[in-house]
Amino acid sequence: MSLKEELNAGRFVITAEICPPRGTDTAAFVEKARLLKGRIAAANVTDNQRAVMRLSSLACSVLLLREGIEPVFQMTCRDRNRIALQSDILGAWTLGIRNILALTGDHVSAGDHREAKAVFDLDSVQLVGLVSTLNSGRNLNNVELRGKTDFFLGAVVAPEADPWEPEEIKFEKKIAAGARFFQTQAIYDMERFKRFFDEAGNRGAKLIGGILLLKSAKMARYLNDNVPGVTVPQALIDELESTKDQLEAGINIASRQLRELKGYCHGAHIMAIGQEESVVRIIDGA
To answer: Which CATH class name applies to 3-213+266-277?
Structure first.
């Protein structure tokens, strides 16, 4: 079954991120993908995550298809204008990709090519609308296409954003623009996320809770200081610091979160950032 079919059938799904390589050697990428095959419903392929140049998410999504793994093609607004966005989206559909996740993208100031010019011709809400327009058989100039797309269209929401009101407005706009599933940013306040799910779960879109593997207490503090919308509670930082093997503790925390999400959520999205082999242990631990 496809990701769309599994979610619509009411099954709890697990997705995970796989980061493309910084070059053309895809051996490690494929090896990590094979570890996850049969354990996840789909694999997200990041689009120059953190504005660091990597092999294209489109190419790596096709590699996943060849391995029999369903990809979620991530696309950001940072690097392409509306012409290039439409062209790549049509290309992805033609190559057999059926899921797309629309993102704003990290600013180039955070990446490895800080002299690059950011595009941001559209924002993430407009990108959702663009994909919906292509799904309807027309382009942004309202010209009829010779063959339309029919993507299962996803977007991102940050349930722990503070203040919440601007994020809520964007969330509602993305649903109105056609988003049918949401993968959330990392969540650590599980009670708050449960309240968000109870309030938002009946708005016509599937919600997949984001689990970010904490590799160390140092990483947790970095997230608190530098990543808007993510707050790691002090209790979890203390838990990491109380053990000699902090990665193992992080895997246990992620497994615990996964078990909790299984009780009510539509799915979980695991982000291990270079530790894809740990995704298997997180799933087994849950």
So the answer is: alpha beta
